[in-house]
Amino acid sequence: MTFTVALAGASGYAGGEMLRLLAGHPEARIKVVTGQSSAGRPLGEAQPHLGAQACLGELIIEPTTANALAGHDVIFLALPHGQSAGIAKEIEALSPRSVLVDLGADHRLTSSQDWATYYGGEHAAAWTYGMPELLTGWFEQPRKPTESAEAAAACGPQRPSEQSAQLARYPVPPQQDQVPPRQDQAPPKQHQALPRQDQAPPKQRRALVEANRIAVPGCNVTAVSLALAPGIASGLLDPTDLVAVLANGVSGAGRALKSHLMAAEILGSASPYAVGGGHRHIPEILQNLRLSAPPAPPAPPVLPAPPTATISFTPTLVPMSRGILATVTARPGPAFDESALRPAWQAAYGDERFVGLLPPGLWPSTGQTLGSNCALMQLTFDPKVGRVIIVAALDNLVKGTAGAALQSVNLALGLPEATGLTQLGVAP
């Protein structure tokens, strides 16, 4: 099944990476690329690494208009925040059956208040969220590690026998058994919405099937959300005291000329930014964790409402072109059991192709994920301070942006999810 592609923002880092992946996709046919300051130039001049493929490098970048983009099967919007929503409305009117994919922030947030606080301006409607592996419901972690879980290869699917041995179980959350019912109240019943015990944990993947409007997550959001979701979903982590410190490659700041991103400023130096709760990815992370959290108890209440998540989030620019290394910590939650940590993350990601828990004792690095669509992670418990530590690494331009977009589009079009994507990084 071939599909035609138009892409806005062809001269930026996200747009260039999106085109690189699409060029290797056996079913994609790139027809139109657009830009602003780069309009009128061959794509190979704006993105020299794409010039070797003549049919791609010789494409002329057109001005970004709805008329130029409309009429194609899939339309990618790799535009600065605040610029996608307006042109998306115009494209929808001209080309309502096209699949629209926003690589910016305009359609990620469901809360207009969060948008006003962190971005400002008019809030656009949220689109289907493009993180297939995100847990979207409560599950109980396996109680004991299995040999297959410990031996599973990171960032790759397991054999069916290993998968079935690690699938999470889905009884009533354990707190319900610990709260005796009132004399005038019947014992609490199991949530009817919970999956059967032979089903895998519910994830965002199912919402992306046949989706025609897709919002690609923020790169930092992907690292932190995937790192925390199994612990939040299972009750192993306390969501009220989360801390994330990230090392970020400078490509995450975009391609626009900025003095603090010049080589003389960034080489040999590391600098934090958006310190003190001001980073725009914070509400998106919290939105995801609410999606992963255990469901609220049915009325009449027999359990306290799930606690509200909070996070201290501090990104740091470091002298590398791409990559994110996120170190996330949390206090133990109500269902904490140190022996259940690895099994919980393995149950969540053991059958995932592009999210992997490394073998015990091995820790992820950004170099391991360079150029790949994988997110790698490791975790441990520090008993001296009473905190769980999860470290996650990914390529901000692939798994953090363009790879997630292509993975989501594959699902939307009914193609194999991994088509055009690689698990393998580039070394050295």
Give a concise summary:
By secondary structure, the protein is of the alpha/beta class. The protein contains 16 helices and 14 strands. 29% of the residues lie in helices and 18% in strands.
What does this molecule look like?
The chain is of the alpha/beta class and 428 residues long. The chain has two domains: 3-104, Rossmann fold (3-Layer(aba) Sandwich); 147-178 and 188-204 and 216-295 and 306-395, Dihydrodipicolinate Reductase, domain 2, CATH 3.30.360. It contains 16 helices and 14 strands. It has helices at 13-23, 43-46, 54-57, 66-69, 84-94, 112-118, 147-151, 160-166, 174-178, 205-208, 219-234, 263-266, 282-292, 341-349, 366-369, 398-413, and strands at residues 3-8, 28-35, 62-63, 74-77, 99-102, 128-129, 213-215, 237-248, 271-272, 311-317, 324-332, 355-357, 375-382, 387-394. The strands form two sheets. Strands 3-2-1-4-5-7-6 form a seven-stranded parallel β-sheet, sandwiched between helices. A seven-stranded mixed β-sheet has the order 9-10-8-11-14-13-12. β13 (375-382) and β14 form a beta hairpin. It starts with a strand and ends in a 15-residue tail after the last helix.
Net shape? globular
* CATH architecture verdict of the largest domain: 2-Layer Sandwich
Quote the beta fraction. 15-25%
Report helical residue fraction: 25-40%
Element string (H = helix, E = strand): EHEHHEHEHEHEHHHHEHEHEHEEHEHEEH
- The helix tally amounts to 16
The CATH C-level class name of the largest domain: Alpha Beta
**CATH-level-4 superfamily name of the largest domain:** Dihydrodipicolinate Reductase, domain 2
Number of domains: 2
Major sheet strand order: 3-2-1-4-5-7-6
Radius of gyration: 22 Å
Class based on secondary structure composition and strand pairing: alpha/beta
Distance from first to last alpha carbon: 36 Å
Mean pLDDT: 85
Poorly predicted ranges: 143-153, 158-198
Largest sheet: 7 strands, parallel
